[in-house]
Amino acid sequence: MVDIKTEITIQCPREKVSSYASDPDHAPEWYVNIDSAEWLTDKPLSLESQIAFKAAFLGRELAYVYKIEEYIPGEKLVMRTANGPFPMKTTYTWEKLEENSTKMTLRNQGEPSGFSKIFTPFMSKLMEKANQKDLKKIKEILEQ
């Protein structure tokens, strides 16, 4: 089982952080490994929305579709892979610390199967490092 939770404090109002982070069109800007995001359903983001992502991880190209499972604007977004090589649930939460300060949490949970199960500890470490880079990047973008 992979269960990685990373968080960062961003010096921006919660509404700005959550609206930017929850917009799939911005994902390639702040996710180190995501190359593209394509809407498979109509905008705006809502329950049942589906977004196709293309990413690179461990030198391999990955293509997967996330389906929105829970969405509370400004507070929480939960997505789960509808298909792809690695079943994954991704959760974002945003907590207002002060007027212009937000704690953003990024959590990835998944159950690798088959051959990739052997590499779970290794993959977990790489995913954690990537998540930390992603959160640093979104912080850098939003604090400009």
Question: Can you name the CATH architecture?
Answer: 2-Layer Sandwich
Report Rg.
15 Å
* The CATH top-level class label: Alpha Beta
The total beta strand count reads 7
CATH topology-level fold name = Alpha-D-Glucose-1,6-Bisphosphate, Chain A, domain 4
The residue ranges in which pLDDT falls below 50 over 5 or more consecutive positions are none
CATH superfamily: START domain
Overall morphology: globular
| Major beta-sheet overview | 7 strands, antiparallel
Q: How many structural domains are formed by the residues?
A: 1
Number of helices: 3
Global structural class: alpha+beta
The ordered string of helix (H) and strand (E) elements is EHHEEEEEEH
For the residues shown, what is the average pLDDT? Answer: 92
Distance between the termini: 37 Å
Helical proportion, percent range: 10-25%
Brief digest:
The chain is of the alpha+beta class. Helices cover 24% and strands 45% of the residues.
Summary tags:
seven-stranded antiparallel sheet; alpha+beta; single chain; Alpha-D-Glucose-1,6-Bisphosphate, Chain A, domain 4; globular; 144 residues; 24% helix
